[in-house]
Amino acid sequence: MSKKLWGGRFELPTDKFVDEFNASIHFDKRLYRYDIKGSLAHVEMLAKQGIIHPNEAEIIKSGLLQILDEIEEGKFEFKTEQEDIHMAIESRLKEIVGDVGGKLHTARSRNDQVAVDFRMYMKDMVDEIRKYLKELMETILKKAEENMDVVMPGFTHLQTAQPILFGHYMMAYFQMFKRDYERFSDAYRRLDENPLGSCALAGTTFPIDRFFTTELLGFKKPTENSLDSVSDRDFALEILSAASICQMHLSRISEELIIYMTSEFNFIELSDDYCTGSSIMPQKKNPDVAELIRGKTGNIYGSMISLFTTMKALPLAYNKDMQEDKQPVFRAIDDLIGSLKIMSPMINKMKLNKENMLKAASKGYSTATELADYLVRKGIPFRDAHFIVGQTVKYAIEKNKKLDELTIEELKGFCDKIENDVYDFINVENAAKNKNSYGGTGIESVKVQIENAKKYLNNL
Ligand code: ARG
To answer: Ligand 1 test: best mutation among 87, 320, 324, 330, most atoms within 8 Å of CB?
Structure first.
């Protein structure tokens, strides 16, 4: 039996199954770099404040750096009995530097230690997420600009509604990912507070300098209340919430790519290297990657609900329940980063079947609203115009004709104010390109969106 670092008051060794049940080392070892970084800052502060001798600090620091190398070279043995990454590192430190290693944990607890490690890890992950979000926004922008004037049907209820420009469609997702980026940036501000030095829950009588460790660890400021610092995980919940929303956006665009690649729609083709085949049906090319992104959304929502449920009703301050915070966060972040990383090249390499999109846009009486607007311009109240066009559409369906295939005589039969210029209005391409109200699908409007997006990306 190896003696526990906290074993002083215990007569019996931990039950073997309890050891396994209690341990988090198999997942929290991921935090090793942050744990060592936090300890290096802590020990430097202890020496600066005269709490330990500078020589002792040097010895501890060199031991910690050796452990860092050992872990990175795969030579470090992670043992279940050591419970978690914090104790594994501290035990190894004592093996390397002897008893002086025991001074590292002065004026610190695993409660503030795990909180600081977790925050540092999450700050790095948010940086990573923002990097991939930015890449995705750049890809979407490029795709929008290259295919700005391709006309496609816009849908409501997945029924053809009105023609829109592909550039407008892409820029809709730009806006969503931009807000995601901002949500992560906003959450980062609250992540950026240093809980180290809150100790178990109450602070310490040692003359520690939390502003110093804050600076060394690159935090904006120390947290203000020790009880809160070791108790809350709202920073993780904010990241999980932002991740859930972002993944929901990724899932919606995935869903559309999947639908648009069916032979029924045939609007796009995803590149071979982002699809897979079927083991039985030789003709198949499946959008598995898009489906997986959509599927991972369930994991991320689940992670968020998992941590919300864990945190509900926990009394202050630290409770071991909170050890269950890490796996959902790790999993959600891995899934989100994986999805973001792959979405950008997948969009970049997809091909558009422009003719098919245009053809589809001209089906389903997609310019019926244009005809109504035309009548309004001739002085007819919109409600009446709506009724007249409804009747016209009914007639066209019966005759199996598109709106612009009706002759001027046929159209005049529904309203004598209709003239030859009507065909310009109900032309599918014109209908899309001319909707230049601010934020509309018109070509001028999409150009404004693209210009604004470029400025936004340049300032990131
Ligand atoms: N492994 C623990 C966690 O992840 C570290 C903190 C343990 N603190 C304690 N008092 N048992 O939450």
So the answer is: 320
Is 90's C-beta closer than 6 angstroms to any atom of ligand 1?
Answer: no
Give the integer Cα–Cα distance in Å for 411 and 244: 50
Q: Which amino acid is at 161?
A: A
- Which pLDDT score, from 0 to 100, does residue 2 have? 57
- Helix 110-146 vs helix 326-349: angle between axes, to the nearest 10 degrees? 10
Residue 151 dihedral angles phi and psi, to the nearest 5°: -95, 135
d(CA 259, CA 297): 18
111 lines ligand 1 (CB under 6 A): yes
User: In CATH, what number does 363-458 get?
Assistant: 1.10.40.30
Sign of the CA dihedral running 293, 298, 302, 304: positive
Angle at 184 between CA 259 and CA 39, to 5 degrees: 130
Return the ligand 1 atom nearest residue 84 CA: 1
* N-to-C CA span, the chain: 54
Q: How far is the CA of 184 from the centre of ligand 1 (A)?
A: 26
- Write the DSSP symbol of residue 12: S
What's at 7, amino acid-wise? G
pTM value is 0.94
Position 434 scores a pLDDT of 92
Evaluate whether 200 touches 108 at the Cβ level (below 8 Å): no
- Give 312-358 as a 3 state SS string: CCCCCCCCHHHHHHHHHHHHHHHHHHHHHHHHHHHHHHCEECHHHHH
For the domain made up of 111-205+216-359, give the CATH fold. Answer: Fumarase C; Chain A, domain 2 (1.20.200)
- Helix, coil or strand: residue 138: helix
- The total number of residues written for the chain in this structure: 460
Rounded CA separation 401/433 (Å): 23
Per-residue pLDDT, 15:
87
The half-sphere exposure of 21 on its side-chain side, counting CA atoms within 13 A, is 7
Active site (annotated) includes residue 26: no
| Domain ranges within the chain, ordered by starting residue | 7-106, 111-205+216-359, 363-458
Which portions of the chain are predicted below pLDDT 70?
1-2
User: What number of helices (H) and strands (E) belong to the chain?
Assistant: 19, 6
Fold topology of 7-106:
Fumarase C; Chain B, domain 1 (1.10.275)
